[in-house]
């Protein structure tokens, strides 16, 4: 800010900045002010600055010490310093206000004084400590001025001082102080040119309007901005190249971030310091409002952004001050009324006059500030809340929410709330988020929520639809907002709307699911009111939990939502911990005897068991289920000690209850299978610590009974994993569980051995076993296969028995499919355990050779069973073979020693056999017709299981391609079905493309090209050669072009250049290849020429700078004798040439050449389809994509049209607006900015 000393007697004051150039010049008589920016001053004096601030005169001695006004202790230690950059990129130190900002030693050296810190006794020597007194006496005073911008840049401590000094200067000379303030705001906008101010004469009349311009002078290369800031007409000039350059508010780095904070604090302190003195003098705020409104209407973004931020912060400060005044007025009025009551008693009569005087002080000031707020609101907020820049719209909406909270007496009105409602339709997510957060803060207080009933009625449909927003953060905040609304208003949502909101507990975004869980707890699981007559006690907490658990189970069963119990439990994990973590309540319901008061139905028991297992898993692992994404602000993990204590309590409870649960549900395989997962999530050390060994014996006994009782594969595998958990080495249950498991396996092997001997002997004699004996063989093999998957049973030598069965099948006769299925499974597990043993400890070479022989033999057996007539058996052989190939390909290098002996890669014949199997068993003809709208129901469980099985087979073979077990060119046979079977297998194929591109971009590009060539060859063989445009656009050939377009998108955006060039080179060679059979007709001579239409889809991946070279290469590769096309034929060469000529920038007046003649024909007939806005519709990924595209077209088509929100002072409750305001989308991009402010 400008110094004030010695200014009264001068006509003009010129202050030197230390470099011989004037930094600020003020002519008080002519009324003209010019200043150079901070950067210019830095560049002019890079060595340092000198400071003089009002009454502070800084003096510096040769030692570098200083004192203020010639006295004061010397400050020890390192001076606090901040750094700025000048235009040359050099750092300039900026110290605090009470220190010297620049140290100019030249004046000191001119008097013969040495540099500070250097002794005169000799050069190069340096004395530590305080210099001699004769040096300290020699001081030179250097003074200059500090602008407001520099003081705000110094730091937070100087902002308060800057405001106070400016207020004092305003009281002395308000015209000059206002010029300083205007210069500060303009300098914060990043203007590096000059600002001039000419006095406004009222007799100019209409000529003033013509001066309010913003234009570019081509002769000088400067931008001019003229606007009225009474009593001046300000002119800002800046170079064209700096129009969108750096400006302080958005500067990078911590310094400029602090500057933005200091800038906001300065604007707020300016109001707080002047509200009791000069704020309402009719001159200060009038000038500031004129200046800010002129800057906010600028087309330059930096001016518009900075001034909008300043205006919004000023409004925030004004609202805070006025609210404080209103609060003080009400307090004074209440005190006055209280004193008036006690007046009759003669107490504190002298206090009445003081209170009455205080009341009158507060009487007129709020009205004056309200007028200032209204003027600033209409001239800055109203034009800028719909600005083309989302940053400015975010500032407006965020501050509007603050105004409503700070000053509800004025802003908590429908005339201001309507702006938040309109901007709920904004296309930018950050603006919508600010609106939701503002509403959420209002609904958190019941006083303000009760005044928002009409607002919610108007925008209810939009708020409900925002639960399906694209941004997951907005959906979670919106759900929390709806929960608050439901707490304040009774009957605000219908039953169908609650059902719509409850379904989000299954959302993939965890904060959204948690918010929906909170709503369920508030509206569905709320504790019932106290009931009963004549002192009857209400139900206790345990009974309420039982009732809430039943309600939750019924909610899951009756809701037509996803059948994902773990997602439901995780959604209620934070919202209802007393319910989903109440192990006693869950187990009490499950153990309730049949016919009891709290007994559940069979279906309810199944759901409760799934909930129990999901809760146990999450309590043990401490993470949400797979597929659920955490928010950006994920909740902090629970303390380790507390979590271990809860886990120990849970384990102690379930080791006691689990035997009883297994005993009760032993006959039901659907209920007992999930219960068998509980041991792997429990801490089994509690058996020894708490003396619970008897419960371990009971659990092992129940497991043994389950293995002997059931023959279902799922139950047997769950029992095997439970035994594996108990038999874990080092665990407390190992000593008892391991012998029990060994006895069980011994019993199964003893049962199987005589049955196999009898079976083989009878088969050799031509006899057949009965169904009973064959069923016993199958059930025993199934049990052994299940235990083989979790336990190493190599000591029982089961491989020899299984190998004899498979060998007998090949040489002697046929075996039942179930026997062969189990034999293949057992053999596979036996080989895997042998590979694991060889990997852990390298065996002799003879053992490895024998193992390799067994592996090759098993691969041959699986290869034979691929053609088996049984679909189940052939698919099982395919999966086992692919898994084994994947394992063997990673065992080691191709060497003849060590694990290299086990290395095996399939040959070309085996690869073709695997791909043929995939085409025949995965890509069935009837699976491509089902679209994304297909909803599978419970009766479609078999179809879903089959689809899952086919997806598994495709994933297995794609894994072989990604891991380079199969050649990458083999992927071409799978890529052919990308579009046809997109809804069933599109995600797997797309992930395969991504992984192969990460492995090798060029080989992946060749595989894509090979796929297109194969499809093109099939098309030519089927339909022959033809060049009809309709056939290429609408016929079967169009699917190949569409597939090529999808392939081009999968190449990526960063490094697709080399791959695109390779595709074009190889594609041109294929297109211009001649037929091996000599043909007389030119079109028969080049049968692949139509492939150029497919190749044209990859032209977009060639960089525009290289398309000319690609076009030249295309011209050079055209052979002689290329056919000539007629007018009615499609010319592939012309289409391909135009695709290479397409660029992103088209000259004005020219049209971009169409890559397809049919596209040019249909170009005029295409019209953007208008979509209904503001409606709550069902969301699907496909409708999202289509609606976003339509939305863009609608917005683009609406540019230039008249805005529907041109009148801003219209009543929010008017009849015209009441019907359409909630359904209208405020198009902030299509609305023209007020007074030429469009950027």
From TrEMBL:
Residues of the SCD domain: 381-466
Leader sequence residues: none
TM spans (from-to): none
Subunit structure comment from the entry: Part of the cohesin complex which is composed of a heterodimer between a SMC1 protein (SMC1A or SMC1B) and SMC3, which are attached via their hinge domain, and RAD21 which link them at their heads, and one STAG protein.
Molecular function as annotated in GO: chromatin binding
Main localization (coarse): nucleus
Top-level lineage group: Eukaryota
InterPro entries reported in the protein's UniProt record: ARM-type_fold, Cohesin_Scc3/SA, HEAT_SCC3-SA, SCD, STAG
Keywords associated with the record: Cell cycle, Cell division, Chromosome, Chromosome partition, Nucleus
Compositionally biased intervals (Basic residues): 125-137
Family to which this protein belongs: Belongs to the SCC3 family.
Compartment(s) of residence: Nucleus; Chromosome; Chromosome, Centromere
Compositional bias segments (type: Acidic residues): 1214-1228
Region annotated Disordered, chain positions: 60-81, 112-137, 1172-1239
Described purpose of this protein according to its UniProt entry: Component of cohesin complex, a complex required for the cohesion of sister chromatids after DNA replication. The cohesin complex apparently forms a large proteinaceous ring within which sister chromatids can be trapped. At anaphase, the complex is cleaved and dissociates from chromatin, allowing sister chromatids to segregate.
GO biological process: one example: chromosome segregation
GO CC, alphabetical: chromatin; chromosome, centromeric region; cohesin complex; nucleus
Bias (Polar residues): 1175-1189
A Pfam family reported for this protein in Swiss-Prot or TrEMBL: STAG
Protein name, entry field: Cohesin subunit SA
């Amino acid at each position: 800010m400008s110094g004030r000393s010695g200014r009264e007697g001068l006509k003009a004051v010129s202050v030197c900045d230390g470099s011989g150039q004037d930094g600020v010049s003020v002519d008080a008589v002519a009324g003209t002010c010019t200043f150079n920016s901070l950067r210019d001053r830095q560049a002019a004096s890079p060595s340092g600055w000198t400071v003089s601030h009002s009454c502070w005169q800084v003096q510096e001695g040769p030692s570098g010490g200083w004192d203020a006004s010639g006295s004061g202790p010397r400050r020890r230690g390192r001076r606090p310093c901040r750094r700025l950059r000048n235009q040359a990129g050099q750092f300039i130190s900026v110290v605090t206000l009470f220190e010297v900002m620049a140290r100019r030693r030249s004046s000191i050296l001119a008097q013969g004084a040495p540099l500070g810190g250097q002794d005169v006794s000799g050069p190069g020597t340096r004395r530590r400590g305080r210099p001699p007194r004769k040096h300290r006496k020699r001081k030179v005073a250097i003074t200059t001025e500090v602008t407001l911008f520099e003081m705000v840049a110094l730091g937070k401590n100087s902002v308060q001082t800057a405001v106070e000094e400016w207020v004092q200067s305003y009281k002395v000379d308000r015209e000059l102080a206002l010029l300083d303030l205007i210069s500060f705001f303009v300098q914060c906008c990043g203007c590096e040119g000059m600002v001039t101010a000419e006095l406004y004469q009222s007799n100019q009349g209409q000529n003033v309007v013509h001066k309010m311009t913003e234009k570019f002078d081509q002769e000088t290369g400067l931008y001019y901005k003229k606007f009225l800031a009474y009593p001046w007409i300000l002119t800002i000039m800046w170079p064209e190249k700096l129009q969108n350059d750096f400006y302080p508010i958005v500067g990078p780095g911590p310094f400029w971030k602090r500057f933005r904070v200091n800038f906001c604090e300065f604007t707020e302190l300016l109001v707080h310091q002047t509200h009791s003195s000069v704020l309402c003098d009719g001159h200060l705020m009038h000038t500031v409002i004129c200046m800010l409104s002129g800057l906010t209407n600028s087309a330059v973004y930096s001016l518009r952004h900075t001034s909008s931020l300043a205006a919004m912060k000023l409004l925030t400060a004004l609202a805070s001050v006025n609210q404080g005044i209103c609060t003080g007025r009400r307090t004074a009025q209440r005190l006055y009324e209280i004193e008036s009551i006690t007046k009759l008693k003669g107490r504190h009569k002298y206090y009445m006059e003081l209170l009455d005087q205080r009341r009158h002080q507060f009487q007129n000031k709020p009205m004056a500030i309200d007028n200032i707020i209204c003027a600033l609101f209409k001239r800055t907020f109203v034009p800028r809340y719909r600005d083309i820049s989302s940053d400015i719209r975010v500032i407006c909406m965020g501050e509007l929410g603050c105004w409503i909270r700070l000053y509800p007496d004025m802003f908590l009105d429908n005339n201001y709330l309507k702006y938040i409602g309109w901007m709920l339709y904004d296309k930018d997510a950050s603006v919508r988020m600010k609106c939701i957060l503002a509403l959420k803060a209002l609904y958190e207080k019941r006083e303000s929520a009760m005044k928002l009933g009409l607002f919610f009625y108007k925008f209810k449909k939009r708020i409900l639809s925002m639960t399906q927003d694209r941004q997951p953060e907005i959906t979670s905040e919106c759900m929390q907002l709806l929960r608050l609304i439901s707490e304040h208003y009774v009957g605000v949502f219908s039953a169908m709307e609650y059902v719509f909101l409850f379904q989000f507990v299954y959302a993939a975004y965890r904060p959204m699911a948690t918010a929906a869980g909170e709503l369920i707890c508030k509206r569905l699981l709320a504790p019932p009111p106290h009931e009963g007559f004549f002192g009857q006690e209400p139900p206790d907490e345990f009974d309420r939990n039982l009732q809430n658990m039943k309600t939750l189970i019924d909610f899951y069963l009756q809701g037509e939502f996803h059948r994902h119990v773990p997602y439901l439990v995780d959604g209620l994990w934070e919202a209802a911990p007393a319910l989903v973590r109440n192990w006693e309540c869950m187990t009490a319901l499950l153990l309730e005897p049949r016919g009891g008061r709290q007994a559940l139905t069979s279906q309810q028991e199944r759901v409760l068991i799934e909930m129990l297992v999901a809760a146990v898993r999450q309590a043990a692992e401490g993470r949400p289920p797979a597929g659920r994404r955490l928010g950006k602000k994920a909740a902090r993990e629970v303390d380790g000690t507390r979590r271990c204590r809860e886990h120990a309590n849970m384990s102690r409870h379930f080791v006691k209850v689990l035997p009883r649960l297994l005993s009760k549900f032993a006959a039901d395989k659907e209920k007992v299978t999930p219960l068998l997962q509980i041991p792997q999530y429990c801490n089994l050390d509690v058996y020894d610590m708490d003396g619970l060994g008897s419960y371990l014996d009971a659990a092992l006994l129940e497991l043994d009974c389950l293995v002997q009782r059931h023959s279902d594969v799922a139950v047997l595998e769950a029992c095997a994993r439970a035994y594996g958990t108990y038999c874990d080495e080092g665990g407390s249950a190992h000593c008892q569980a391991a012998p029990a498991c060994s006895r069980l396996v011994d019993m199964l092997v003893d049962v199987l051995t005589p049955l196999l001997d009898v079976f083989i002997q009878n088969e050799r004699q031509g006899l057949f076993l009965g169904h009973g004996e064959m069923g016993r063989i199958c059930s025993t093999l199934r049990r052994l296969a299940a235990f083989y998957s979790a336990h190493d049973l190599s000591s029982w030598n089961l491989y020899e028995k299984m190998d004899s069965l498979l060998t007998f099948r090949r040489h002697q006769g046929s075996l039942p499919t179930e026997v062969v299925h189990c034999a293949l499974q057992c053999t596979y597990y036996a080989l895997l355990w042998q590979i694991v043993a060889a990997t852990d400890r390298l065996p002799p070479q003879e053992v490895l050779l024998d193992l390799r022989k067994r592996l090759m033999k098993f691969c041959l057996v699986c290869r034979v069973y691929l053609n088996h007539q049984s679909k189940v058996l052939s698919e099982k052989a395919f999966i086992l073979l692919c898994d084994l190939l994947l394992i063997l390909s990673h065992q080691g290098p191709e060497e003849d020693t060590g694990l290299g002996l086990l290395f095996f890669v399939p040959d070309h014949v085996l690869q073709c056999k695997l791909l043929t199997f995939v085409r025949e068993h995965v890509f069935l003809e009837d699976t491509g017709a089902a679209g994304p709208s297909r909803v599978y129901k419970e009766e479609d469980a078999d179809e879903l299981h089959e689809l899952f099985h086919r997806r598994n087979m495709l994933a297995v073979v794609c894994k072989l391609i990604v891991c380079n077990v199969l050649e990458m060119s083999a992927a071409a046979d799978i890529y052919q079905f990308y579009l046809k079977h997109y809804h069933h297998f599109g995600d797997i194929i797309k992930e395969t493309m991504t992984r192969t591109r990460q492995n090798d971009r060029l080989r992946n590009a060749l595989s894509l090209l090979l796929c297109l060539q194969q499809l093109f060859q099939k098309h030519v063989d089927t339909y022959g050669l033809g060049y009809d445009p309709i056939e290429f656009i609408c016929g079967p050939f169009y699917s190949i072009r569409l597939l090529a377009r999808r392939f081009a998108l999968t190449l990526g955006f960063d490094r697709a250049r080399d791959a695109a060039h390779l595709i074009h080179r190889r594609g041109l060679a294929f297109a211009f290849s001649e037929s091996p059979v000599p043909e007389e007709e030119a079109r028969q001579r080049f049968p692949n020429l139509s492939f150029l239409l497919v190749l044209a889809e990859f032209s977009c991946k060639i960089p525009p700078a290289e398309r000319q070279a690609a076009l030249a290469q295309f011209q050079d590769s055209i052979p002689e004798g290329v056919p000539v096309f007629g007018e009615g034929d499609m010319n592939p060469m012309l289409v391909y040439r135009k695709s290479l000529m397409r660029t992103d920038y088209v000259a004005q007046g020219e049209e971009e050449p169409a890559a397809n003649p049919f596209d040019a024909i249909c170009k005029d007939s295409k019209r953007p389809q208008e979509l209904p806005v503001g409606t709550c519709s069902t969301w699907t990924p496909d409708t999202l994509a289509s609606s976003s595209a339509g939305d863009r077209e609608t917005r683009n088509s609406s540019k230039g049209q008249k805005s529907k929100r041109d009148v801003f002072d219209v009543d929010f409750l008017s009849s015209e607006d009441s019907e359409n305001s909630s359904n209208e989308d405020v198009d902030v991009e299509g609305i023209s900015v007020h007074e030429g402010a469009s950027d």
